[in-house]
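We examine the record.

___
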Amino acid sequence: MSSRPSSPIGPTGEKSSSQGDIAGVGPRPVRSVAVLGLGPMGLPIARNLLDAGFSTTVWNRTRARAEELLDDGAIVADDIAAAACDVVLSVLPDVGPLQDLLDEAALAAFAEAGTVLVVMSTTGPQQVRALGDLLSPHGIRVVDAPMSGGVAGAAAGALSLMIGGDDADVARIRPVLAPLSQVVTHLGALGAGSLAKLCNQIVVAGTLAALGEAFGLARASGIDAAQLAQVLGGGLASSEVLTQKQDKLLRRDYSLGGSTDNQVKDLVYATEAMGATEVEARLLPVLLEAYQEIVDRGDGQLDHAAVQELYATD
């Protein structure tokens, strides 16, 4: 199986912040990258790494999905141990499925490779910190880097990445993140990125639910939904959520982007995180109930824009 030449500093040769050098010593070059999970986000992430010149290994439960990238120069791993690289990106749905895959062979291979494991899933800060504690004795470093921007952002290499981890670990992975993102923000220690992503998910879930309710009101009152969308997009109500989800909302076509199942998962984690503070959640319980209702209808695998159906009158 073929691979493209590796690029130790990424496509631009520049770091995205002054945190790149620690005590005057630059991070070790990244010569190999792996992507675990080739779903709607993982596949374009792997393609962007290949396009940037990184030697990229891919693994997916359904091997045929991984083999789609062979012509692009990817190396297909037969198991997780074979995916041991300098940097391993987990684009699996959560920390649990990743942890289940990390058997003794995988741990030994990652340790030997000096892997920095980057969790790009949306999860809870407690969960990613526990993973870090589990892997630290094996010499495996963990960084959380959950992403926002949806499938369109992943395809365009324009994600917003929220980073938590040790300064040196973050500096090392920055060249890998560069071809995937337009914003990379190091927010603090391990778990900080995950907490920021939960804040992001409250905003996304709230905006989608508000749009669904607004379109429901418009349709029930005889206003053309497409015209309303144009009005909203031209004013203060405009948002990236409206831009990316407008077609789904107008056509009531909820082919998968971000699933409602995952939206519920994220809101559950957000509820747990909120419970660890003195902030009283007011909107969050309402949002969780709304998206859970869609799941309870059997539509958890639909795009989370399906929350709009709560307001349908036909």
